[in-house]
């Protein structure tokens, strides 16, 4: 019974990571690409580690997996925030159908809304 | 090397390997053609995530859970590299 759950979690996690790669390839601008890469990939890693803990339960593995999931869920938003801010300050062009740009009041872009 | 996994689990793990390598290939294409430097940094960050997933699958198929140490170190190095790149890019805009 636990093997079925482990297979399900491992496959679901790798499917989410595949979606992250596909979104990184297909999305139109930097910020939507970062949205796909950060969230889907960290969620997929969490699912895969959960499947591994279900498959081979030990206290070492449980504590190590909890540490890794906690660390990724803390650091991935921080890294994505810093990278998005740097990309915005570097004037990376936004997607032409962008409807909200709240930082435009704070920081003047020379060329907004180009694709 | 324990190979006494059930056939369902073996099929699931090999299909997961295929999905991870497809995603790795898509990320590699983005790394090649990314129009700006932050795009390439996002692709490199996602590379490390995929390598972590591949190590997790490898330890699932062999039963060697000691590889979780490598996953932890890779997560730390990916965070440090991305933060260093973002700081470097942001400092470049001020001067």
Overview of the structural elements:
The complex is a heterodimer of chains A (115) and B (95). Chain A has 115 residues and is mainly α. Chain A has one domain. Helix content of chain A is 71%, strand content 0%. Chain A has helices at 2-26, 30-55, 59-89. The longest helix of chain A has 31 residues, at 59-89. The termini of chain A are far apart. In chain A, 42% of the residues are buried. Chain B is an all-alpha fold and 95 residues long. Helices cover 84% and strands 0% of the residues of chain B. Chain B is built from 3 helices and no strands. Chain B starts with 6 loop residues before the first helix and ends with a helix. At the A-B interface, helix 1, helix 2 and helix 3 of A face helix 1, helix 2 and helix 3 of B.
| Range of helix content of chain B | over 70%
Strand content of chain A: under 5%
Structural class of chain B: mainly alpha
**Overall 3D form of chain B:** elongated
What are the defining features of this structure?
heterodimer, A: 115 residues, mainly alpha, B: 95 residues, 3 helices, 0% strand
Secondary-structure map:
The complex is a heterodimer of chains A (115) and B (95).
Chain A: H1 2-26, H2 30-55, H3 59-89
Helix pairs in contact in A: 1-2, 2-3
Chain B: H1 7-33, H2 37-62, H3 68-94
Helix pairs in contact in B: 1-2, 2-3
Brief summary of the model shown:
By secondary structure, chain A is mainly alpha-helical. Chain A has helices spanning 2-26, 30-55, 59-89. The mean pLDDT of chain A is 87.
């Amino acid at each position: 019974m636990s093997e079925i759950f482990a297979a399900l979690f491992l496959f679901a996690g790798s499917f989410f990571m595949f979606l992250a790669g596909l979104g990184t390839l297909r999305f139109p601008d930097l910020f939507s690409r970062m949205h796909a890469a950060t969230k889907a990939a960290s969620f997929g890693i969490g699912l895969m580690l959960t499947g591994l803990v279900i498959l081979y339960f030990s206290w070492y593995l449980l504590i190590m997996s909890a540490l890794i999931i906690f660390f990724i869920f803390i650091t991935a938003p921080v890294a994505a925030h810093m990278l998005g801010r740097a990309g915005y300050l570097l004037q990376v062009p936004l997607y032409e159908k962008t409807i909200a740009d709240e930082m435009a009041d704070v920081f003047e872009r020379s060329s907004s809304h180009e694709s | 090397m324990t190979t006494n996994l059930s056939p369902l689990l073996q099929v699931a793990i090999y299909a997961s390997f295929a999905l991870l390598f497809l995603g790795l290939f898509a990320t590699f294409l983005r790394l090649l053609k990314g129009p700006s430097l932050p795009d390439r940094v996002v692709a490199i960050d996602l590379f490390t995530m995929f390598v972590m997933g591949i190590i997790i699958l490898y330890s699932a198929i062999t039963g060697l859970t000691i590889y979780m140490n490598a996953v932890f170190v890779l997560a730390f190095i990916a965070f440090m590299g991305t933060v260093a790149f973002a700081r470097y890019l942001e400092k470049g805009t001020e001067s």
